[in-house]
Amino acid sequence: MHDLVIVNVQLATMVDGYGAIHDAAIAVQGGRIAWLGARADAAPAAQTIDGGGAWLTPGLIDCHTHIVHAGNRSDEFEARLDGASYEEIARAGGGIMATVRATRAADVDALLRASAPRVLRLLAEGVTTLEIKSGYGLTLESEATMLRAARRIGQLLPVRVATTFLGAHALPPEFAGRADAYIDDLCATMLPQLAGEGLVDAVDAFCERIGFTSAQTERVFCAAARLGLPVKLHAEQLSDQGGAALVARFGGLSADHLEHLTQDGIDAMAGAGTVAVLLPGAYYFLRETVAPPLAALRAAGVPLAVATDCNPGTSPLTSLLLAMNMACTLWRMTPAEALAGCTVHAARALGLHDDIGTLEVGKRADFALWDIARPADLAYAMGLNPCRLVVNGGVPRAPVVSWPRH
Ligand code: NIG
Ligand code: FE
To answer: Is any atom of ligand 1 closer than 6 Å to the C-beta of 268?
Structure first.
């Protein structure tokens, strides 16, 4: 007998488009999907949940966030609306460095307190897997603190956390004028030590005029490869640096942002199976006007993921459903593409596609149950959260969870 069966649901399996199965049921055994099919064929289980005709999707996956950080940058938001650019603010010592100053002053508990409201909001919307980057510490100790806070979130809350080391996010002041020396230190000391502690699932960098050059990024990727860690990249966000082609050359999981991506980059990504992670929150919040080249990405068959990029500077966004809406409204992604971008393709962007992202027998039983008439409603209803129930590894929970007391 199965542990759990959810009957009377419409399944969006996300295998080949929505992969809809109407009047269906899905059974769980040992935290994994054991069976799915027509409701009439469902066998009895230890626990039965009646879905009341609602839609059941894979749990949502936010595959690109900087959600662990201290402080906020609403002052910079005001300055940008007054005419200052993101790059000007960064060059004047604000931007990422402003958050670095706040984050360095915080310990793990303070980071958890600061991040809790953001994480809980994602969880209420059916997020069951969350990627969290470091990159606001920029010292061994402070990057470790960020990554420990990220791991702690995965232990305290019903969410699977994938950590990404983003030590090459900005040049810390201690290394002013010595970017290559910082990258030396990152490759020789920071990354190996953090990886040795089990804190790093993947490695990322910011390849940009205000970040690191492609040569420096390549050295970071070589260090990751020596440790057997997969890579991804903030690429072509503000300008074309050839980052997408570089990360593809390393067999990278994803290239993220991509507003200034060229055809060469697209071809390289298609050849390597590198996912395009599109971040409409940052595009919107920076009032960008150059959209990522969606038609060319589609034509090349590059998988498209969508994420919040939750961060204090370019995307203080804590709703993956709103990111889906923005991807559709701002760029004409289809609602089916947007949902695939937060499930099956987001899983691929984390290297977890064998385990999560679709409703298929053998995959982890991570689900969200929605009070909607059709799957497109998820991208459609701006600011509405129709999530009724979430299942994490076979364990049902209410969408809204609170921070555990200790
Ligand atoms: O994804 N562009 C680099 N990193 C972040 C922004 C970081 C920040 O401004 O704090 C991003 O947009
Ligand atoms: Fe980012």
So the answer is: no
